[in-house]
Every structure is written in C-alpha cells, then in structure tokens.
C-alpha cells in the first residue's frame, strides 16, 4: 500500500545563476502540503523537477512510490497540474480544451468534466483568452479532476485571484482530499491560504530546504519576540532571525528552544507568514 | 495510442486557428495552376509554404506556454519531438495530396493527362526541398524556442534557394544535372532517400538539443 504520494530525497539541480540544493520532503497520502518560500526560492523548479521538465543533478523523486523518470508516463496518468498561468491555446474554447487534453488520459471522464464545468460556470463556447484568470484556473482544475488525478500539483494557483475566488478554490481543495485517497502539493506565497488548508509544509529559501514537516511543527518551532531597544542584548540579537528595529521597539523571529532563556520579553505565536518573512529577510532591518 | 501520435493530434488541435492560412495555400496553388505551372513547381511551392507554416506551431507553443502542458501530460521528450516531426511531415503530405487533386482537375479541364512520372518527380523534389528546410529549422526551434530561432530559421530557405540557383552558374554541375534529368528514376530515388536521411538525422539532433535545453 502506498504511504507517501510524493517523496523527494536529496534532490539538487544547478543552473548558472541558481542552485536548488538537497531538497527532501514527504507528502503522505490524503493530505495537503504547502510549498512556501519567497519569489526565486526554488518552488517552481522543485515542481518542474517532480514533473521531469528539468533533469535533476542528484537525488531521488518518488511519486506514488515510483521513480518519476522511469515511470513518468504511468505516473502522469494520475497527476493533475495547475500552474500560475494558463497553459492551453488561447484560441481554444472550453470544449476544445477538453477534447485536446483528454487525448492524453486513459481514464478521462467526459461526464465529470461536464459536471465540473457546470459547477465552475465554465462557458463551453467561450475561448480560453476570453476567460478571467479565476475561470482559467477553474478550467485547469476541471481538467485535473476529469481524469481522476490522485495527486494535484499546484504552482501558485491563487496568485492574482480575488479573495472570494481564493476562498472558493480552497474549499474545492478540501473537498478534493476528503476521501483520503488524494493529495495536494500546493506552492504559494500567500501563506494565509496554507494556514487554512495545509497539513504539512515545506519551506525553501534561496534553493535551500529550511523546514519540511507538519504545520504544527513549524509554528511550534518559532515564535516572535518583542521588546524595547534597551533590552536587546548582543546575545539576543545573535539569536533573532529577521530582526526589525525601530527607535521605540524591536521584534523578530526566534527559535522556541532559544526563547526559553530570555525572561521578561513579550512572546507571540509566529504565523507562517512571520516565519517566511523572518527567514527570507534574515539579518537586521531598521 | 502511442505518445508521439498524441502529440501529433494535439498539434492539429493547436493549429486549428490557422485554418484560414491553410486555405490561402489552396488559393495559391489554384492561382499557379491556372497560370499553367507544372506539378514540380506546385510541389516545391507547397513544400515552401508548409515549411513556413511549420514555424507557426512553435510560435503558438511559445505564446501559450505549451511546454507546461507537455510537461504535465503522459508523454516523454522523444514523443514530443517525434510527434512534432510527424505533424510537420503530414502537413507536407496533405499539401502534396491537395496538389495532385487540383492538378488532376486542371488536367481534366484542359483535356491533358497527368503523368505518374511527373507526379513522382514533383513529389521527390518537393520532399527534398521540404526536408532540407525543416531538417535545419526544427532542431533550431527545439534548441532555442521560436523567438530566438526566428531569424536563424530563415537560413535554410536561403540555402535551398542557393541550391536551386547555383547549378545554373557552375558549368561543372551541368553534366550532373543533365544526367539526372535523363535518368528520372535515379533522381526520384535519390531525392526520396536523401529526404529520409535528412529527416532522420534532423530528428536525432532535435532530440539531443531539446534534452540539453531541459
């Protein structure tokens, strides 16, 4: 029985100006994993390596417990992919898109596509170029659902969407995994979306893996420390990640295990957003 | 269905918006036909036109991020390249079939007969011209993408034009040309064979450069 729908072990890829280094993660079956990090962190590269759109330099990628290169065609029958922008021909209508995409899937279900089109209000005769960004995203999702994908890979699907559509999209994702047989890898920099739906999180910064594990694990690992500038000792400054100083106060991210030694300061729970900003900015900000 | 055939089928869907351009090809052939052009001239015109059209599929691919679609569906790198070659060659074959149909119509209308030898000669020479042009063009598009390869892709058209013009200025080649024209069977066989060799090596190079691009 398959335990993990996706597993990366020490995956690396070098480009002339960027290196993705030693990325490992495990996405158990039936869960949603958020892939977060600032722009240029390596999220899209990681997804493209999973899809074998780039050849990795080192490491191992297993999808449904199978090597992603050796079993590429079989794996992709059960994969649904949504990118940040539409990747269908702009002159296609919604109906044309179904005909074109269905060529590639043995288990394509026209009735499921029709149901999805109805649920998402996709106008069959409207061209892809005439659809709004939110509707284009729904069209990509309808295609992913119509071949009964077991793993959805989403690359920044909610960027540029209004809050109402984003909310609807998150509901669709939660609905999608409720039978426990499907999983989602969801790359985004809108971390509030993840706090609502993700069970696991992988944080990447400048091509390096910072954390991969449960949501509780990362939020429990860090907290926010606040105080007055006179209370900021050199030792504390060293322990703070992404220190922000003003004339009247300071605040920053600190590892929970380090926080215990500092008494008399104000501590707040860190959100995913605080952690991503703190880690990606690092250093001291004034 | 084989992976490469899925890509060929997708390419036909992709080029659906170009139907009007294909229709203009029929009009060009009709115009040339009324002017009394031979099937060889019509065939080479068709080859020229279809080679120009083959760059459109790469333009549409780039404009619409189709690399992402190819990356998300169950086809391998070789399927993508072979599927594209198959699509381009089928375009040429369809164009030549249309030319035969139209030439037959003209011949019937003018009470002439269309010789099989002329059809074969027209086919083999136009196939050679088509293969040389697309054989150079396609690896360029796979290596650089449409925008970067656009200028370079004109080089094979110039090369083919040079191949047509140069023999008239080089007297040493006149013997070879005369021999070819008197031995049409050898010319047809050599042209078809050379076309196959060019397409084969072009495909192999395209696979290598496309893999490196990834």
Helices and strands in order, then pairings?
The complex is a heterodimer of chains A (286) and B (214).
Chain A: E1 4-15, E2 18-28, E3 32-36, H1 43-50, E4 58-63, E5 66-67, H2 72-77, E6 79-82, H3 94-102, H4 110-119, H5 133-146, E7 151-155, H6 163-176, E8 183-188, H7 191-197, E9 200-205, E10 208-214, H8 215-221, E11 222-227, H9 234-239, E12 241-245, E13 250-255, H10 256-259, E14 266-269, H11 272-281, E15 284-285
Parallel strand pairs in A: 3-8, 3-9, 6-7, 7-8, 12-15
Antiparallel strand pairs in A: 1-2, 1-4, 4-5, 9-10, 11-13, 11-14, 12-13
Helix pairs in contact in A: 4-5
Chain B: H1 3-14, H2 19-34, H3 39-63, H4 66-72, H5 77-109, H6 116-144, H7 146-149, H8 155-169, H9 174-182, H10 184-213
Helix pairs in contact in B: 1-5, 2-3, 2-5, 3-5, 3-6, 5-6, 5-10, 6-8, 6-10
Major sheet details of chain A: 6 strands, mixed
Our Rg estimate of chain A from Cα atoms comes to 21 Å
Number of strands of chain A: 15
Oligomer: heterodimer
Task: Please report the distance between the alpha carbons of the first and last residues of chain A.
Answer: 53 Å
The helix-strand sequence of chain B is: HHHHHHHHHH
Q: Which range best describes the helical content of chain B: under 10%, 10-25%, 25-40%, 40-55%, 55-70% or over 70%?
A: over 70%
């Amino acid at each position: 029985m398959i335990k993990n729908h996706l597993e990366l072990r020490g995956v690396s890829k070098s480009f002339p100006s960027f290196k993705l280094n030693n990325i490992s993660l495990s996405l158990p079956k039936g869960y949603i994993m958020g892939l977060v990090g600032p722009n240029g962190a390596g999220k899209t590269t990681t997804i493209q390596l999973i899809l074998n759109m780039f050849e990795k330099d080192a490491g191992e990628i297993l999808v449904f417990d199978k090597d992603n290169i050796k079993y590429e065609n079989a794996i992709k029958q059960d994969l649904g992919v949504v990118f940040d922008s539409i990747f269908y021909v702009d002159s296609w209508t919604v109906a044309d898109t179904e005909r074109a995409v269905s060529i590639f899937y043995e288990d394509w279900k026209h009735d499921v596509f029709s149901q999805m089109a109805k649920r998402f209000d996709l106008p069959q005769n409207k061209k892809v170029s005439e659809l709004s960004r939110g509707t284009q995203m729904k069209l990509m999702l309808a295609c992913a659902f119509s071949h009964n994908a077991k793993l959805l890979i989403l690359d920044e699907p909610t960027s540029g969407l209004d809050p109402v559509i984003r909310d609807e999209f998150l509901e669709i994702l939660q609905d999608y995994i409720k039978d426990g047989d499907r999983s989602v890898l969801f790359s985004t920099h809108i971390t509030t979306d993840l706090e609502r739906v993700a069970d696991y999180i992988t944080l990447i910064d400048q091509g390096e893996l910072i954390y991969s594990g449960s949501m509780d694990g990362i939020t429990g690992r860090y907290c926010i420390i606040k105080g007055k500038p006179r209370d900021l000792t050199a030792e504390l400054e060293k322990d703070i990640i992404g220190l922000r100083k003003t004339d009247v106060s300071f605040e920053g991210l600190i590892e929970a295990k380090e926080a215990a030694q500092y008494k008399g300061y104000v501590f707040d729970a860190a959100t995913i957003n605080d952690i991503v900003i703190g880690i990606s900015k690092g250093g001291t900000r004034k | 269905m084989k992976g490469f055939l899925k890509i060929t089928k997708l390419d036909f869907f992709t080029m659906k918006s170009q139907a009007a351009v294909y229709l203009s090809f029929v009009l060009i052939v009709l115009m040339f036909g009324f002017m009394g052009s031979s099937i060889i001239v019509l065939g080479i015109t068709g080859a020229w036109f279809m080679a120009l059209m083959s760059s459109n599929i790469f333009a549409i691919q780039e404009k619409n991020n189709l690399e992402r679609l190819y990356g998300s569906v169950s086809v391998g790198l070789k399927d993508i390249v072979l599927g594209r070659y198959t699509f381009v060659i089928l375009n040429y074959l369809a164009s030549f079939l249309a030319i035969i149909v139209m030439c037959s119509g003209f011949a019937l209308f003018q009470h002439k007969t269309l010789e099989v030898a002329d059809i074969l000669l027209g086919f083999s020479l136009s196939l050679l011209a088509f293969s040389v042009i697309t054989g150079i063009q396609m690896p360029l598009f796979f290596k650089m993408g449409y925008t970067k390869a656009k200028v370079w892709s004109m080089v094979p058209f110039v090369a083919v034009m040079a191949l047509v013009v140069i023999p008239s200025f080089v007297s040493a080649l006149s013997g070879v040309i005369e021999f070819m024209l008197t031995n049409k069977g050898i010319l047809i066989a050599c042209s078809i064979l050379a076309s196959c060799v060019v397409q084969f090596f072009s495909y192999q190079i395209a696979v290598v450069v496309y893999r490196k691009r990834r």
